[in-house]
Design brief:
The chain is mostly helical. It has helices spanning 16-22, 25-32, 57-71, 75-78, 81-88, 93-103, 110-116, 134-138. It is elongated and about 75 Å long.
């Protein structure tokens, strides 16, 4: 079913009877309040993340990064005294980064690696009895 099949050809508005015959009353009432465009023409795809409306890998990357930052806000954590102390500690940078990754469960251990590459072995390479995760590797 296409939307245009539910629009009256003469009035260019919703055909109440056609909408009501296909949908439950509550659904039909919701559909009928959706305004229809006053401009008639062929549909076309617009990527609203760029000024020109065209998709690009660059804009997709920035949308992805933006969404990742929204879903995992680090600002509150990075401003805590603990994190400030970590980032200002007089230790090699690689130790600070390792500690941060350890706390964020971002180390590429068996379990985390399998999330990225499905066919990897997740068992601990030393004991072969438990899954290799942060708790098993460091505790």
């Amino acid at each position: 079913m296409r939307v245009c099949e539910r629009i009256d050809a003469y009035t260019k508005d919703w055909s109440y009877s056609l909408v009501h015959e296909r949908f439950w009353r509550e659904e039909a009432d919701i559909i009928l309040v959706i305004p229809l465009s006053m401009i008639y023409g062929d549909d076309f795809v617009v990527w609203h993340h760029t000024a020109c409306g065209k998709f690009s890998v660059w804009s997709s990357y920035h949308v992805t990064v933006s969404l990742a930052n929204q879903s995992q806000p680090s600002t509150s954590l990075s401003r805590s005294p603990l994190w400030k102390a970590l980032w200002q500690a007089n230790v090699p940078r690689k130790i600070r980064v390792f500690t941060w990754k350890l706390a964020q469960n971002a180390l590429l251990l068996g379990v985390n690696s399998q999330k990225r590459m499905q066919d990897l072995e997740i068992m601990c390479p030393f004991c072969q009895h438990e899954e290799e995760d942060v708790a098993h590797a460091f505790l």
